[in-house]
Amino acid sequence: MANTDSVKVRVFSLNCWGIRYLSKHCRQRYAMIGDMLCKEEHDIVLLQEVWSEKDYLFLKKKLACSHPHSHYFKSGVIGSGLAIFSKHRIHDTFLYRYSLNGYPYMVHHGDWFGGKAIGMAILSIGSLTANVYVTHLHAEYCREKDSYLPHRVVQAWELQQFVRHTSAGADVVILGGDLNMHPQDLGNRLLRSYTGLRDSFLETDEFDGCENGLTLIGDNPFISKKELVPFEKGIRIDYILFKGSTKAEIFCDSMSTTKGSVPDHPFPYSDHEALTAELRLESHTPAETGRDKQSKDSDSAAEKVAELVDIVTEARTEVKVGLHCAENMRYTATRTGAMGLALLFLELVIAAVPWLALGAEQPFPRTSFYLLAMLCFVILLTTSLLYIFYTMELKSLQGTEDQMRLAVGSLQEKLRGFPLAQPHNAQRKSPEGREPSAFDPEE
Question: Would you place residue 115 in the very low, low, confident or very high pLDDT band (cuts 50, 70, 90)?
Fold first, then answer.
């Protein structure tokens, strides 16, 4: 491999927790973030939860000299909250909004009102074309009873599809954001296995930050330790992921996170910790591969495909669980609506009594009668809207399950196309000396 060029890129990612009038010290924290970004001069800045466009415009003005190129992704009722700032020119952008994102009646969670999405920007870094993605997935409010897990799995599926289908012509792929998933969660494994994206924290040899790369820590004054149970120290849910191509290799030379407090300030930048990854991009010409290397690559690819089959099958099972729950909820809405309709019909019958029996008086007080009619109307309207919502949720889940079924079939067909390992291959370890793979028979 002949290296022809090497470029260093510093990538920054932060969930800003920027809910105006609700988040603590919001304006002061944005000023702190802007000052820090001007000072540090990262090449690419990926922000989440910038819910107010006024706050984005404030940062844009403040970073005009250090990051002249920027874009704010608009979506949903209150926006996607996603923004990107860059030293390098942004040639093109695109936004994809996730098909599922919580429930509208869970107002206290608020995810449905924010148009959770993935934003893409195409940059030129030297002679390389870079696809840069920023995203924010649905939050996990209760790990033991996570009613949003099917939605988050669907979002992870759509995220990996979007990245794969839009990055085919890119030399470098960088993804940053708040995935709201632990490193070994199903959606995270699905994303990294399918796209080949690598985790900066796992790839770097030099790390400075919170223990185990945690990005939501109990020592942060904006965090209630009750929210982190059973993880007392904290959790890692924010990531900077990357991958190269046949034209360029990418390495993570160092990575760091903030550690809760900020020097000379009474509070931190956000309830999340900020991530900084220093990436090194190396352009190269593809090297010729020998027969032995091709054999090893084939074996490695077969193992990866087998692992991916298991992951997609697990994800498909979780989506089916979501389908079952959505069907039950739609049935409940239908039954409640039918009861409301029956009650309304009964009221109409009672209202017709004075017309059918001349001289008869209304058997119920007029005020109570109207209040009951209004209640019936509200029940019918609410259940009708819920029926429509759950029908839309069912269609999204069914569509994802169909895609996963096709993907599993395609992967299994691809797996059958790999040659079986030959026993006379001296390069391979004996069954006793190697780790078990997905091809080993079950005991």
Answer: confident
